Structure formats: C-alpha cells, structure tokens
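ok posting inputs for the zinc ion job
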Amino acid sequence: MREDVLLLPHCVRCAHVVWAPRPYCPECGSLEVRWEPASGGGAVYSFTVNRRGKGFNRRYEEIGPYVVAYVELDEGPRVLTNIVGCAVDDVRIGQRVRAVIQHSGEDSILRFAPAE
Ligand SMILES: [Zn+2]
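and the output
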C-alpha cells in the first residue's frame, strides 16, 4: 500500500538534513543517513506563472496556466515544485503552504497547496 508521507534524509550522527539526497552526510561524513517524516510545511521562496501553451504544446494548453515554484521546507531544503489548490494569481512569496502528494500512474508527485 502506498503511503503519502513526505520523507527527508537526516544524518543519524549530527541530525543535518542531507539535501540533495545522497548516501552520506556532507557536514560530518557519516554514512548513516535515515529517511524520516517531514512536517510537510513550508513557504513559497520564489515562483513564476507559466501562461504559455497556446501554439507551444497542446498538452500544456489543456492544463492551463500553472505555478512553478521553489518552496522552502520548514526543515530547510528548497524544492522545485508546483503550487496547486488556488488561483495562479493568488500565490505570493512567503505564503505558507503544505505538501500535497498527487499520483499519476505509478508516479507520486510532490506539490504544495496553500496552508489553511
Ligand atoms: Zn552528519
């Protein structure tokens, strides 16, 4: 069964969040890295609205305008993602968001929606 939980790699020795994910800690060199649940919270660090589609790629035309953003997780890492669950013009830098894991076939996609 699939679990919708955002996990981040943490160093077991020094607790550093190992981002981008790799099998060792860049802070202390430990090879003990363990994936642990993240809070799922973050804030919009930067974003753009992609309104291009017409005449460019029909697939995107069907999707409509969408937000591409960097979200800074509460644990520190910044992830490239999409903001969903609100109008594209309502997104703001610094806006609090929460993780939303969406599924497309076998893939799980990490996106974010405005926090309530
Ligand atoms: Zn470490």
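notes: The first helix runs from residue 58 to 63. The chain has two domains: 1-37, 39-114.
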